[in-house]
Specification:
The chain has 249 residues and is α/β, with parallel strands linked by helices. The chain folds into 2 domains: 1-32 and 79-121 and 172-249, Rossmann fold; 33-76 and 123-165, 2-Layer Sandwich (SIR2/SIRT2 'Small Domain'). The chain is 40% helix and 17% strand. The chain has helices spanning 2-13, 41-44, 50-55, 57-76, 81-91, 106-109, 138-148, 174-186, 204-211, 238-247; strands at 18-22, 95-100, 117-119, 122-129, 135-136, 161-165, 189-193, 215-219, 232-234. The protein has a 6-stranded parallel β-sheet, with helices on both faces. A 3-stranded antiparallel β-sheet has the order 5-4-6. A hairpin with a 5-residue loop joins strand 4 and strand 5 (135-136). Helix 1 (2-13) packs across helix 10, helix 5 runs parallel beside helix 10 and helix 8 runs parallel beside helix 9 (204-211). The structure holds nicotinamide-adenine-dinucleotide (NAD). Nicotinamide-adenine-dinucleotide binds at residues 23-25, 27-29, 32, 34-37, 40-41, 101-104, 121, 194-196, 198-199, 220-222, 237-238.
């Protein structure tokens, strides 16, 4: 493992416009289960599809109940050593952008400036109107839900309000996709941390960066589908490995 960490430090040392591509695996050390590992979120309950959310008030109620049940977890979770190491790489001018599939806001909480984080699947810490895009706070929705048994419609346009996440069946956010493409094409290194790289279109960005000339490093507990294309693969735990690599810079 020491040689692999040294190899990662060497790649980072040579980089000026690296992108870090993160998935649920970077947040498991903060206590948020990932998608596919045993005990992962979706092994316990089926996700509500976007089409059902829009068409069916009962699906919306189920979705909000689940979101409120998670509120305590979302309020308690804190960035872990992996998030902090990534924040240091941004602060040191090695990493230009963090492209994340996560919805937990932990990169921002660890000190990465908002404009350096590209959230491909949105953010669960607030909600948005699906029609006009107005921001709505979860606490206000919860208060309405507790009184009336459902979520309020948008006060500005009457549209349906939903957490600001991208659900299964929902279109990817255009602006974030364009920013992720730009950052990947400009990157000299793409470091993947904690993604099975099996959820597309998000998982296309590391390969896009690689094809455009970046080195590709993958740090994940288990094999990923893109290991064969990587310049460096480390099968290990993100917090300890990234902390050691940053220390070795
Ligand atoms: P995934 O669950 O498909 O893959 C996560 C990978 O991380 C797995 O291969 C696992 O082996 C690895 N991993 C877990 N803990 C690790 C650790 N400590 N060190 C190293 N590797 C570790 O996740 P994904 O590819 O991000 O896709 C899941 C989807 O679900 C995403 O689209 C994301 O939006 C969503 N999701 C988000 C969160 C979150 O915001 N924290 C949590 C669960 C799911």
């Amino acid at each position: 493992m020491d040689a692999e960490i040294a190899g990662l430090a060497t790649l980072l040392r040579g980089a000026r416009r690296a992108v870090v591509f993160t998935g649920a695996g970077i947040s498991t050390e903060s206590g948020i289960p990932d998608f596919r590992s045993p005990g992962g979120i979706w092994t316990k309950m089926m996700p509500v599809q976007f089409q059902d959310y829009v068409a069916d008030p009962q699906a919306r109620r189920v979705s909000w109940q689940r979101r409120f049940e998670m509120e305590e977890t979302w309020n308690q979770v804190r960035p872990n050593d992996g998030h902090k190491a990534v924040a240091q790489l941004v602060a040191r001018g090695i990493v230009s952008h963090v492209i994340t599939q996560n919805i937990d806001n932990l990169h921002q909480a660890s000190g990465v400036p908002e404009d350096r984080v590209i959230e491909l699947h949105g953010n669960t810490r607030h909600a948005k109107c699906l029609t006009c895009g107005a921001r709505v706070e979860i606490a206000d929705i919860r208060a309405h839900f507790e009184e009336h048994g459902d979520a309020p419609d948008c006060v500005l346009c009457g549209g349906i309000v939903k957490t600001a996440t991208i659900s299964f069946g929902q279109a990817m956010p255009e602006g974030e996709m364009a920013r992720a493409e730009q950052a990947s094409l400009a990157a000299d290194l793409c470091l993947v941390a904690g993604s099975s790289l099996s959820v597309y279109p998000a998982a296309a960005f590391p390969l896009l960066a690689k094809r455009a000339g970046a080195r590709l490093a993958i740090l994940n507990r288990e094999e990923t589908e893109q290991d064969p294309y990587a310049d460096l693969v480390i099968h290990g735990e993100i917090g300890p490995v990234l902390t050691a690599a940053v220390k070795a810079l």
